[in-house]
């Protein structure tokens, strides 16, 4: 039992470290990475101060696990380093008191959206206004869950349909054609998303669709990709835009040997 509790304490401290590292990367590179635990991705607060508060809370929880596992050893450590412990504890409490009013309300909404609890998420949106950065991030998850009513509500509440996310500054449309059900692409077109936005590598949604969908979506074949290409082009997507490598969607379709798509784009 003692070994198990110590292991829980160690894992909690590792989670605290990963939270701080991930939050730092988000702050430095303007990413929106979360913590991957099991099959779920837990979002982090958009502001770094709140990330620090979450990390410190995890440190406290980890310390409690170690206290339960070996109280005598923990108290010996506290007596030996009492002033450092007191200063650290006071700093931790101050950060938690200041930071958590900002972090926790947003975290509750984030978890509701990720878990697909649309009714709870919509009720929370009705209660108060949330930061645009939070809503932007959550539109990705609601689209992934095919919850277009919730997505529309977040757009109405201030989410930017054309916001960029991740390492390559990709758009919601990039994510939709890359990973999601075709209905997500249709929804975004209806909402007026920029069909020709380019990511940091110069790729439009057409580039992403042709290059990546087949290997990332179960059951995606050339016919489905062609249907999405037609939908995008008909709505105004430009098939002649080149990425940083100088390739158009037509050239990528030729590379992928998508003959029906090549014929359509010629």
From TrEMBL:
- Keyword tags: ANK repeat, Membrane, Repeat, Transmembrane, Transmembrane helix
- Tell me what this protein is called: Ankyrin repeat domain-containing protein
Is Transmembrane tagged as a keyword?
A: yes
Return the Gene3D superfamilies for the record.
Answer: Ankyrin repeat-containing domain
Top-rank lineage group of the source organism: Bacteria
Q: Where are the transmembrane segments?
A: 7-28, 48-69, 81-104
């Amino acid at each position: 039992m003692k070994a198990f509790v110590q292991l829980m304490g160690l894992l909690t401290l590792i989670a605290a470290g990963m939270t701080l590292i991930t939050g730092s990367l988000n702050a430095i590179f303007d990413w929106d990475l979360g913590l991957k635990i099991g099959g779920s991705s837990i979002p982090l607060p958009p502001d770094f101060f709140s990330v620090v508060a979450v990390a410190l809370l995890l440190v406290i929880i980890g310390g409690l696990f170690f206290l339960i596992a070996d109280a005598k050893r923990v108290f010996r450590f506290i007596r030996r380093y009492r002033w450092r412990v007191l200063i650290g504890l006071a700093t931790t409490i101050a950060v938690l008191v200041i930071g958590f009013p900002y972090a926790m309300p947003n975290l509750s909404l984030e978890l509701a959206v990720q878990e697909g609890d649309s009714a709870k998420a919509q009720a929370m949106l009705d209660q108060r206004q949330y930061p645009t950065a939070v809503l932007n991030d959550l539109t990705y998850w609601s689209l992934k869950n095919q919850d277009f009513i919730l997505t529309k509500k977040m757009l109405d509440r201030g989410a930017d349909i054309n916001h960029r996310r991740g390492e390559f500054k990709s758009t919601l449309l990039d994510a939709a054609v890359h990973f999601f059900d075709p209905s997500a692409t249709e929804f975004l077109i209806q909402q007026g998303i920029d069909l020709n936005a380019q990511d940091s590598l110069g790729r439009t949604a057409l580039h992403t669709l042709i290059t990546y969908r087949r290997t990332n979506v179960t059951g995606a074949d050339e016919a489905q990709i062609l249907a999405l290409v037609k939908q995008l082009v008909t709505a105004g997507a430009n098939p002649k835009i080149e990425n940083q490598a100088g390739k158009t969607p037509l050239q990528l379709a030729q590379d992928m040997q998508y003959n029906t798509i090549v014929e359509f784009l010629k």
